[in-house]
Automatic annotation (TrEMBL):
Keywords: Oxidoreductase. GO terms for molecular function: 1,5-anhydro-D-fructose reductase (1,5-anhydro-D-mannitol-forming) activity; nucleotide binding. Residues 3-122 form the Gfo/Idh/MocA-like oxidoreductase N-terminal domain. PANTHER family: BILIVERDIN REDUCTASE A. Its EC number is 1.1.1.292. This is 1,5-anhydro-D-fructose reductase (1,5-anhydro-D-mannitol-forming). Residues 130-251 form the GFO/IDH/MocA-like oxidoreductase domain. It is an enzyme of class 1 (oxidoreductase).
């Protein structure tokens, strides 16, 4: 069975990454929705998509569409996802799932009730580096994990700036754009859930309307692990990284908080240093292969709706801590 896709949003991430990943894993893109007919037609032509439409109803009620990919601005996700679910479509939604936990949970519950596949597009958990780290920790190669550090301060390129820097009502700002990724990647690698956040925000000149363009903070996990994170839109010359330190060793990864299948992981312990072998693969292709298999009843998605709720809950707790100056408990409402 070929999974036929409709794109809700004529987005950059779809054209740069997701369309190719759909096609590389046996899917087909049959339509795209844009509120601008001219933009939609141009986008469809440039990306070899047969149809463009201007309304949500036209896309989700297309009998020739099996699944939708949602990559519009964040405040639109809930209504678009629920409309697609009601139409019987499987859904892959960009992060964050929504702007509130109530909305995110409603999306997940609607998909569960309808019996359709619902996934969050958290691509970083598909990186070979993070999977190797998760496997090493599970195998006891660093002993008991005690702490972690994530360096995810980057420079937001001009073609991606726009609403991320000046539209708080759309979920702009670095926390809902990048910290959600840290939260999901930490949960995945550590196989653990965060329970508390404390953070400080910064406005370094790019963010407008009071939006933070950088944030630093600490998450505390159920196991007691403490994880530092530094996220930013303003950092032009740093590298990204991910470290986990345990009682018997450390895992040190560099250039791994990225969309590209690159980076390295070193295991350092009493015996010295060892470079872990990585089977690098396109992160989005891994996600779409898992999604297509889930639609066919042959496995689970890479990142579920519940995973998306967890990352949103963490990011919202970080944002609340920035505003209040206090530590904030992380609760998803999923029964944890």
């Amino acid at each position: 069975m070929t999974v036929r896709w409709g794109l809700i949003g004529a987005s950059t991430i779809a054209s740069e990454w997701v369309i190719d990943a759909i096609r590389a894993t046996g899917g087909e893109v049959v339509s795209v929705m844009s509120s601008s007919a001219e933009r939609g037609e141009t986008y469809a032509k440039e990306n070899r998509i047969p149809r463009s439409v201007t309304t949500l109803d036209a896309l989700v009620n297309d009998a020739e569409t099996d699944a939708v990919y949602i990559s519009t601005t964040n405040e639109l996700h809930r209504d678009q996802a629920i409309a697609a679910i009601k139409a019987g479509k499987h859904v892959l939604c960009e992060k964050p799932l929504a702007l509130s936990l109530e909305d995110a949970r409603a999306m997940v519950e609607a998909a569960r009730a309808a019996g359709v596949v619902f996934a969050t597009n958290h691509h970083l958990r598909n990186a070979a580096s993070h999977r190797a780290m998760r496997d090493a920790i599970a195998a006891g190669r660093i002993g008991k994990p005690l702490s972690a550090r994530v360096f995810h301060a980057v420079y937001l390129p001009p073609h991606l700036q726009g609403w991320r820097l000046d539209r708080p009502q759309a979920g702009g700002g670095v926390i809902l754009d990048i910290t959600v990724h840290d939260a999901d990647t930490l949960r995945f690698v550590l196989n653990d859930d965060p329970v508390e956040a404390v953070a400080f925000g910064q406005s370094g000149g790019m963010g407008k309307q009071g939006l933070e363009d950088a944030v630093m903070g600490v998450l505390r996990f159920k196991s007691g692990v403490l994880a530092q994170f530094h996220d930013g839109f303003t950092t032009q010359f740093a590298e990204t990284g991910f470290e986990v330190h345990g009682t018997e060793g450390s895992l040190i990864a560099r250039n791994v908080m990225t969309q590209k299948p690159v980076g390295s992981v070193i295991l350092r312990n009493a015996e010295g240093e060892q470079v872990l072998p990585l089977e690098q693969r396109n992160l989005y292709e891994a996600a779409l292969e898992a999604f297509h298999n889930a639609v066919k009843g042959k496995g689970a998605v890479s990142a579920s709706g519940a995973d998306g709720v967890w990352s949103l809950a963490t990011a919202l707790a970080v944002a609340q801590s920035v505003k209040s100056g206090s530590a904030v408990q992380i609760r998803t409402g999923l029964g944890e």
